[in-house]
Structures are given as structure tokens and as C-alpha cells.
């Protein structure tokens, strides 16, 4: 099959953005002379010839005209207008997968058609991109020949062994395109001798050559005054020497194409990741996060950071035993040399006797690590002991195959072949020559999982209806693309060697073959070093299986499959439902999305940033019916106004003041732009993130009412509630054990620990990378992928419950649920511990007894007004009478607010106070803070003192769990202090009065 190409409007815009720079330029032939050294001629065809005629590009407009053209194009494309030509460097920013190679190829042909330019050099940073460009020129030649009336154009990859092509490049009258790697011409430009008189090695391009009749290749190239196209300039000319090398080509101008520019010269066209994503010019992305949903049964350690201040320390994330609940949790701790993780983890079994004692901490920049006594070494970010890495990798392979087959079932009807790509960093995991069948772990796992999945009933239609296309033979559907040694054996590589060049050529050559149903291969394994410069439009799954730290960026991963897919006729299928790229990752969606957004920001894409020209093009109909658009200059005036009035920082970040004034309808623009206000606000909101609004004008400081605090009524009330108590417990153990056994028997079945796949759809907007919907699926139990180890559950339950060992053994034995411990140890411990603690709390409350102690609450500590604030109309009530110890009441619920309003307006209430959270009564299930202290006056003139708890019900049996138990403890506390204070649970003040 052959890929078919069509003109797309955004690509035409990008072409015109460059070609229009030369508007007014005349077609002129420019000649130069190439001298022939008659004393050093090896070529018989030059005998008697003194020179050759070279053909070069000719520019016939001045820089003033060119700058005017540039500014007009930038205005048209909503780009900040340039002030100068920056040595004729022009930038085109296009997202990966949108066809930048197609665009600059068409630009070459269009520049020739309009202005007669014939000499072009494409400079690339790597072997991969060099092969990718050459492959693209091959694939598009027929398309462009038809489009440009069969114009003759030649292209070649510069090879120092074939310098005759350089002469042809210089002397040809046709369009000539040279593809050259920057490494081929950025070494020393001049031959020099060292102290021993030995000539230093320089690139051949800078040496005189007999093949070129005594000329240097670089001189012939420079004589053509070529238009230089730099593919991925951030990787080409980031150094002084590289810039000098580009200058040595003597470019008429330099066109710079990339999605990730580091240096931004005159920008002519921009297609951002957000533009490409939102306009469906590339595939949308979903992330399948392969993670275990429980703690693993192995020692877990992640190195967060290392530090050297007074001593060497490190920050480690490890399992820590929560002795209150019996569950182990991941926590970050600080450790130093000789620390034992078993001790730091509160005795988590998995670290015991496993050699997790810190031997050494290295703080050398770029080489930060921690060594343990068991020989393990962890570098920053690395992890030991998640669910075994092999288990997760096998689960990733299974998930990739399943997602592939699911898509294949639907896409095959549209003539779309689905491809999946696995990146690995150790080829022996795919092909292991030490084994008789030469199959590495990944190849073996793949074939086992594929065989299992393809034979499932849900894929019956693939097997029966499309059996001619889709093989059920697992060995026939995958292949590897790796560098090879001299014996033809695959090997690890760096991505930059000659062996890699052969591999890239194979990948490019096979690109169209792989798209055909006639080719059974659907799953591709490739070395992670081969991570750029190539892609395939029908890659729908990308899975990275790496042994060491993953060096591939998220953009590199998705870049191999972002391009819109094609059918069997080579035509692009534009419907979004057939264009989703799935990334199968062993990290959470949040981690993936966060990293992807940071990469985009590092590549100069600014989320939530307003630029001086952001308002350009906003159009508003005037009173006379005419339509007026904001120019770049007017946009800059609005931008400067926003900065001056503190609606925005000078770097384009919207401030809280903008959101505050917008919220209060106070935001205005200068009079001349008043009609644009609503559209400017809409543009700001589209480009920036919303900020949570806190209305500072409603913030209310809450102060003590000193007069009330010193009153006899408050003093009497305080004396009645200030007594402290302690509690003791007498628990009926037989009753406790019986209830615990019953609840464990009735607890939900403990399911095996699963490996989950969360599949999340990404949306890339100007506000950032977002989750727009996800689903979670179970891939299988951990024991299907990994071996289990088991902790000492009796000791763990003892730690969390403070029960005797024999009590725990008796309860567990009678429950009959011990077998489930062996399927999911941590979940079993967590649930049993939770039941034991719950039953224990219930029984503790029943057997609790409070006693007074010789200790009292301190009034100055309980009642003070330091940093006490509320928000008007949200949680604070203004009280004007002298009944409350504070001048405002802070309430937590509508019931509390109504109670305060009633107390404020009721003449029988002499004094009331919302008890601060610092007033706490100890209970076996945590501290209890009652709501109110109230003094009532009866008809007989007697004063009654209450502590009241306001709830939505007055029947405490309607309350559940801890809430009910704390109230029962509170009641016992106030009963035992016996100061004449009454404790009541009420819904409203009227009920309290009725009980007086």
C-alpha cells in the first residue's frame, strides 16, 4: 500500500507563512564560478576544464521590504510582530504528528515556483531524524510531482564517501535538497597541526578534496547561498560551535521547524499542542495506569532525596505500621547511615532480617543514591518492592494486547490495521541467546498472554471472520527492531551508531508494509534508544517496559503514534472515534498528566498565560454596524493597562484582583476599549486558570467580650464546667469475643489483591492537561503474576488493638476466615483490625467509668481570640447583646446558627457560649468537644446551667458510631463532676428550656 496525502488548510497556512516573506522577489538565475585545480586532477572528465558554473539562490528584495512582509504575516497569524529580521532566522512551531516534514517539503517547492530558489539544505540532529526525513521525501515524491507539474527535484543524504553529489548539488539547475547531520560539519573548520606536527582530524566537509578538484565541499555549498531548513533546532544549534557551523553554510535565510523550540527567533506560524489536540489534527490520548490496588507483600522503598548538611541524610518513602489501625501505609521518613528500616517502619515484617540497614548515602550531583546492607542500591526516584516489577510488566503486556484486540475488533471493519509498540531497554528481555528457543521474558510473556486473549469468546469474530488477516499464532504477530552486531545478533544500542542507522532504515522501509493487512505483524518491540525521528500513523498503543529509570519523555512516547491513522487505501481516517492513542504506563494518570504538562511548559508552551498580543483579532460590532478588530498594537495597550492596574503580572499571570473585580462587576477597560470588555474577559478566562475566590471584604475578626467574661454569671458557669476527669474501663471479654467472631464471620469476602488498569482520557487545553473521564478495570490477582510473602498477622493485630495474643488467636480461629489471609494478607489484616477496634470501642463505652482528678481546664487557654476569624454570610453571626462571651458566634451548621439566633433573642437566656474546640473531654475513641454552655433563668428566678449538644435528632439512638459513643462518654463526664450542670442533646433551644 502507499500512503496518500492531501492538502490541509493549516499546512497551507504554514507554507504561506514562509513563502510570503519573499513577496516582491523576482525570479533570477544567479551564477558563481567553481575553480578547477589543474595540478591535482584525478577525474578525466575535467581535463582541459578550468572552472565549473555553479547555480545559487538570488534574493532581489531588501531587508526593509522583507521586514514589512514578516510583520504583515505575523499580524495575520496573531503573532507578536518582530522588530528586526534576526539575521533572517524564521521559526515555525508545529506540534509533533502534524506533518512538519510535509510542510517544509511543500515550502521548498512553493519557493521554487514563486521565486526560482533551487538550493536547499535540511540540517538534522540525529541519525533517526535523518532517516525519517529521507523516508518522508521518498513517500511524498509522487504526490508532489503531481501537484507541481512534474517539476524535477533531487534529494540526497550527505555522505563524505560520495562528495560528487556535492558538486552536482552546486552545479545543477534543478531543485537540489541536501539532508545533512549537524555532526558532519560542526567539528574544527580548519586543519591545524598539533605539537608533533600531526594533522588534527576535522570533518571531511571542511577539507580540500581531490574528488572536487581541490575544492572544499563547504565552499561549494556556501557558494549556492542555500535556504537552510533546521529540523529540531533545539537539538541542532544549541552550542556556539553549532551556530558557527550553520553560518559556514552561508544561508540566504534559515527556517527553523520544531514543536519544542528553545530559542525563539522571528515566529511566523504557530500550531501549539493545544491547537492540534483541540482541532483533532492528532490522536487524542488515554492513559492506562497499571498499578496494584493494595500494599505489596514485599519490602517497599522509594528514594525521594538525599542531603548533606551536618550529616548525610536521605528521605525515603517506606511502609510504616499504623499501630492504631493495624494497616501499613506509605510514609516519607528521614534516615541516616546505619538506620534500620525495620525500626523506622514501626516493625513492618517485610524489612526484618532483609538487610535494609543504610550502609552509605551518596550526595554527589548526578550520582545521588543510597546503599543498603543487602547490596541493594537505590537512585533518586527508584523504587524497590512495589508489586514485583515483573508482575506489573506482564500486566502491562496483557493490557496492551487486550486494548489492541478491542480496537482491532472495531477498526478492522473500517480497513484500519492496529499496531502496538513496546519500548524496552534491554534486548535480552526480548531475545535471549542463552536459551534454547532464544525467547526472552517479554517475548515469552507476550506469546502466552496473546494466546490466552485471542482465544477468548469476545474475539471470536476476529478469529473466524478475519482469520486471514489476524493470526492466532502468537509468534507470527510480533517482531523486534534492534541494532545488530556483526553476527546478526540483536544488541542494546544508544540510537546514534551506524548499526542504529540500519535499524532506522528498516523501520522506515517497513512503515507502509506494516500498515497492510497482508503483513501479519501487529506488535512491534523496539529499543528505547530509538525514541525519536520516526513514527507510524497506526500505532494505537505505546507501552514502555524499562528495567532502569525511564529516560523517555512523555512527548517522545506519544510522539510515535500521534499522527492521524490511515486505512488500507492509504487515506487518512479523520473521525475522532478512530483516533485515540493509548499509553500503557506503570504510573498513575496524575503522575503521567503532571509530567506531560511540565514537559510542555519546559518546551515554552505556557498554560494559563496572557501574552501582549492575546487580544489581537477580537471583533465587536459598532453602533453604525461596522465590525472593528483589535490590532496587535491595541492588544498591547490593553495588556499594559491590565498590568498597570494589577489585574495581571508583567509575565501574563492573572491576579486575584481581576477575579475579585470581575466577581463584583467592577472590572472595566479604558473608555476607548469599553465595548470590547466582555470579549476581553472571555479571552482572559479561556487562557487562564480560575482562582478560588475568597471575599476578603467579608472576613470578620471575632473578639472576646471582656465585660461578659468578667461577669458573675460567666464565672459561675466556668466553675461548673472547668473540672477535669479521667476514665477507666472494665470490659466483658466473653461478650467482646463473641461479637468480634460474629462480625468477622459476616464481613465481606476478602478478594485477592488485584492489579488494576485505570484508563484515563486526556484533554490538552490552554488551562493544562486534564482528566475528562476514566474507567478502572481489574487485570487479575497479584498471585497470577507474582509470588506472595506473608507477615506475622497476630503481632500486627496485637499492635493495633492492644489485645492479648491468645485472644486474637481464639477470635480468628473461631471466625473460620483465616484462609482469606493467604489471598490478600494486607487487606485481611486491615479489615479484621477494623472490626476488632470497632467492637472494642463499643464494649469500652459500655464499661467506661469517669473519676474526678485534681486538675482543671484553664480559662485563658480555652477562651481567647487569637487569630479567630469567620466569614460574613457563611459561618459567622453578629451578636449585639451582652449574652455571649464573644462579639460574634462562629457556627458549623444551620442548626447551630438557629440555636444562636434563638438564644440571642430569648429573654430567658442570661448567657451562652459556643465552646471552643480547645475544650476537650478525653474518651476511649478520641477527644470530644461539646457545642454550647448555657445559663437559663427560670420563672422562679433560679439559674440553671447546661452543656448542650445540638444535633438533627434528640434521640441519641438515631446517631451512629463514634458520634453516639462520644456523647455517652460526655454525659458520664458531666454526671461525675456533679457541679449542678445538666448535659442535654437537643435540636433547638426550646427543647432545652422544656427540660429545665
Give the averaged pLDDT, no decimals.
Answer: 84
**Gyration radius from CA atoms, angstroms:** 38 Å
Bin the helical content.
25-40%
Classification by helices and strands: alpha/beta
Précis, in short:
The protein has 996 residues and is α/β, with parallel strands linked by helices. It is built from 30 helices and 38 strands.
Write the layout of secondary structure elements.
Blueprint: H1 9-19, E1 30-35, E2 51-56, H2 63-76, E3 89-94, H3 100-115, E4 119-124, H4 127-147, E5 153-157, H5 164-171, E6 175-181, H6 217-223, E7 227-231, H7 233-236, H8 240-247, E8 253-258, E9 266-271, H9 273-278, E10 284-292, E11 301-308, E12 312-321, E13 328-336, H10 341-344, E14 358-364, E15 367-372, E16 377-379, E17 383-384, H11 389-411, E18 419-424, H12 441-454, H13 460-464, E19 478-481, E20 483-484, E21 490-491, H14 498-509, H15 511-514, E22 523-527, E23 539-545, H16 554-559, E24 580-585, H17 589-602, E25 619-621, E26 627-629, H18 632-644, H19 656-663, H20 677-687, E27 699-701, H21 706-709, H22 712-721, E28 723-729, H23 733-746, E29 754-765, E30 768-781, H24 793-801, H25 805-815, H26 825-846, E31 848-856, H27 859-862, E32 869-871, E33 876-878, E34 888-890, H28 894-905, E35 909-914, E36 932-937, E37 943-950, H29 961-977, E38 981-986, H30 989-994
Parallel strand pairs: 3-8, 3-9, 4-6, 4-7, 5-6, 7-8, 10-24, 18-22, 18-23, 19-22, 23-24, 37-38
Antiparallel strand pairs: 1-2, 10-29, 11-12, 11-17, 12-13, 14-15, 15-16, 20-21, 25-26, 27-32, 28-31, 29-30, 33-34, 35-36, 36-37
Amino acid at each position: 500500500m502507499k500512503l496518500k496525502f492531501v492538502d490541509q488548510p493549516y499546512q497551507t497556512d504554514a507554507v504561506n507563512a514562509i513563502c510570503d516573506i519573499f513577496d516582491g522577489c523576482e525570479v533570477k538565475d544567479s551564477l558563481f564560478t567553481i575553480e578547477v585545480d589543474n595540478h591535482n586532477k584525478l577525474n578525466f572528465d575535467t581535463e582541459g576544464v578550468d572552472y565549473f558554473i555553479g547555480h545559487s539562490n538570488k534574493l532581489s528584495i531588501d531587508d526593509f521590504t522583507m521586514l514589512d512582509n514578516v510583520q504583515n504575516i505575523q499580524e495575520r497569524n496573531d503573532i507578536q510582530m518582530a522588530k528586526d529580521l534576526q539575521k533572517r532566522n524564521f521559526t515555525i512551531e508545529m506540534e509533533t504528528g502534524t506533518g512538519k516534514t510535509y510542510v517544509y517539503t511543500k515550502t521548498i517547492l512553493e519557493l521554487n515556483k514563486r521565486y526560482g530558489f533551487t538550493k536547499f539544505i535540511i540540517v538534522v540532529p540525529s541519525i533517526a531524524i535523518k532517516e525519517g526525513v529521507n523516508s518522508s521525501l521518498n513517500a511524498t515524491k509522487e504526490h508532489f510531482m503531481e501537484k507541481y507539474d512534474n517539476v524535477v527535484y533531487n534529494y540526497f543524504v550527505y555522505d563524505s564517501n560520495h562528495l560528487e553529489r556535492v558538486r552536482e548539488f552546486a552545479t545543477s539547475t534543478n531543485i537540489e535538497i541536501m539532508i545533512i547531520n549537524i555532526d558532519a560539519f560542526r567539528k574544527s573548520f580548519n586543519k591545524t597541526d598539533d605539537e608533533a606536527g600531526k594533522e588534527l582530524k576535522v570533518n571531511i566537509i571542511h577539507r580540500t578534496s581531490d574528488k572536487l578538484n581541490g575544492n572544499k565541499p563547504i565552499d561549494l555549498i556556501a557558494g549556492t547561498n542555500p535556504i537552510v531548513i533546521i529540523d529540531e533546532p533545539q537539538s541542532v544549534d544549541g552550542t556556539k560551535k553549532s551556530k558557527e557551523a550553520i553560518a559556514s553554510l552561508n544561508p540566504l535565510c534559515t527556517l527553523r521547524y520544531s514543536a519544542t523550540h528553545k530559542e525563539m527567533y522571528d515566529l511566523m506560524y504557530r500550531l501549539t499542542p493545544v491547537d492540534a489536540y483541540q482541532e483533532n489534527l492528532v490522536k487524542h490520548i488515554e492513559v492506562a495506569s497499571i498499578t496494584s490496588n493494595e500494599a505489596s507483600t514485599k519490602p517497599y522503598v522509594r528514594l525521594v532525596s538525599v542531603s548533606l548538611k551536618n550529616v548525610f541524610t536521605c528521605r525515603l518513602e517506606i511502609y510504616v505500621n499504623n499501630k492504631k489501625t493495624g494497616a501499613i501505609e506509605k510514609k516519607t521518613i528521614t534516615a541516616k547511615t546505619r538506620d534500620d528500616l525495620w525500626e523506622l517502619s514501626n516493625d513492618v515484617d517485610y524489612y526484618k532480617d532483609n538487610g535494609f540497614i543504610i550502609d552509605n548515602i551518596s550526595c554527589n550531583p548526578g550520582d545521588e543514591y543510597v546503599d543498603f546492607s543487602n547490596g541493594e542500591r537505590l537512585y533518586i526516584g527508584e523504587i524497590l518492592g512495589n508489586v514485583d516489577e515483573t508482575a506489573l510488566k506482564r500486566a502491562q503486556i496483557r493490557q496492551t494486547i487486550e486494548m489492541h484486540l478491542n480496537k482491532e475488533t472495531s477498526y478492522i471493519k473500517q480497513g484500519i490495521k492496529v499496531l502496538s509498540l513496546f519500548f524496552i531497554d534491554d534486548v535480552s528481555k526480548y531475545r535471549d541467546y542463552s536459551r534454547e528457543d532464544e525467547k526472552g521474558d517479554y517475548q515469552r510473556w507476550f506469546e502466552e498472554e496473546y494466546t490466552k486473549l485471542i482465544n477468548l469468546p469476545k474475539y471470536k469474530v476476529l478469529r473466524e471472520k478475519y482469520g486471514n488477516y489476524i493470526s492466532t499464532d502468537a509468534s507470527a504477530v510480533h517482531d523486534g527492531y534492534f541494532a545488530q552486531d556483526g553476527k546478526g545478533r540483536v544488541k542494546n544500542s544508544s540510537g546514534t551508531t551506524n548499526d542504529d542507522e540500519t535499524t532506522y532504515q528498516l523501520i522506515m522501509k517497513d512503515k507502509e508494509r506494516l500498515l497492510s493487512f497482508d503483513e501479519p505483524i501487529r506488535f512491534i518491540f523496539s529499543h528505547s534508544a530509538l525514541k525519536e525521528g520516526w513514527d507510524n500513523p497506526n500505532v494505537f498503543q505505546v507501552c514502555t517496559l524499562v528495567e532502569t529509570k525511564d529516560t523517555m519523555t512523555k512527548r517522545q512516547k506519544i510522539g510515535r503514534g500521534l499522527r492521524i491513522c490511515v486505512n488500507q487505501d492509504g487515506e487518512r481516517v479523520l473521525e475522532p472515534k478512530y483516533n485515540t492513542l493509548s499509553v500503557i504506563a506503570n504510573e498513575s494518570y496524575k503522575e503521567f498528566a503532571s509530567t506531560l504538562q511540565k514537559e510542555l511548559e519546559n518546551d515554552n508552551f505556557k498554560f494559563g498565560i496572557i501574552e501582549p498580543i492575546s487580544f489581537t483579532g477580537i471583533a465587536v460590532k459598532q453602533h453604525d454596524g461596522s465590525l472593528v478588530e483589535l490590532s496587535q498594537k491595541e492588544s498591547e495597550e490593553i495588556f499594559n493597562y491590565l498590568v498597570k492596574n494589577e489585574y495581571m503580572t508583567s509575565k501574563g499571570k492573572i491576579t486575584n484582583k481581576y477575579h475579585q473585580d470581575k466577581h463584583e462587576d467592577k472590572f472595566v477597560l479604558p473608555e476607548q476599549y469599553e465595548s470590547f470588555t466582555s470579549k476581553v474577559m472571555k479571552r482572559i478566562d479561556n487562557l487562564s486558570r480560575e482562582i478560588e475566590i475568597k471575599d476578603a471584604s467579608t472576613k470578620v475578626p471575632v473578639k472576646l467580650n471582656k465585660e461578659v467574661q468578667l461577669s458573675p454569671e460567666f464565672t459561675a458557669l466556668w466553675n461548673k464546667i472547668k473540672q477535669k476527669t479521667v476514665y477507666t474501663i472494665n470490659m466483658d471479654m466473653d461478650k467482646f469475643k463473641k461479637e468480634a467472631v460474629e462480625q468477622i464471620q459476616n464481613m465481606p469476602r476478602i478478594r485477592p489483591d488485584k492489579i488494576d488498569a485505570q484508563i484515563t482520557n486526556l484533554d490538552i487545553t490552554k488551562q493544562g492537561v486534564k482528566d475528562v473521564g476514566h474507567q478502572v478495570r481489574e487485570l487479575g490477582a497479584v498471585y497470577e503474576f507474582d509470588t506472595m510473602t506473608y507477615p506475622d498477622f497476630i503481632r500486627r493485630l496485637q499492635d493495633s488493638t492492644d489485645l492479648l495474643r491468645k485472644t486474637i488467636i481464639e477470635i480468628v480461629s473461631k471466625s473460620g476466615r483465616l484462609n482469606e489471609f493467604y489471598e490478600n494478607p494486607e487487606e485481611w489484616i486491615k479489615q479484621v483490625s477494623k472490626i476488632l477496634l470497632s467492637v472494642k470501642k463499643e464494649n469500652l463505652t459500655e464499661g467506661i467509668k469517669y473519676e474526678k482528678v485534681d486538675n482543671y481546664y484553664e480559662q485563658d487557654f480555652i477562651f481567647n481570640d487569637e487569630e479567630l476569624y469567620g466569614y460574613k454570610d457563611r459561618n459567622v453571626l453578629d451578636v449585639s447583646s451582652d449574652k455571649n462571651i464573644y462579639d460574634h458566634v462562629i457556627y458549623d451548621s444551620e442548626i447551630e446558627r438557629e440555636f444562636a439566633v434563638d438564644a440571642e433573642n430569648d429573654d430567658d437566656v442570661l448567657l451562652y457560649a459556643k465552646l471552643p474546640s480547645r475544650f476537650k473531654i478525653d474518651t476511649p475513641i478520641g477527644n470530644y468537644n461539646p457545642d454550647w454552655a448555657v445559663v437559663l433563668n427560670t420563672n422562679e428566678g433560679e439559674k440553671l446551667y447546661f452543656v448542650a449538644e445540638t444535633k438533627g435528632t434528640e434521640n441519641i439512638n438515631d446517631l451512629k458510631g463514634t458520634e453516639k459513643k462520644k456523647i455517652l462518654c460526655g454525659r458520664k463526664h458531666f454526671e461525675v463532676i456533679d457541679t449542678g450542670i445538666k448535659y442535654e442533646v437537643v435540636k433547638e433551644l426550646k427543647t432545652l428550656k422544656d427540660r429545665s
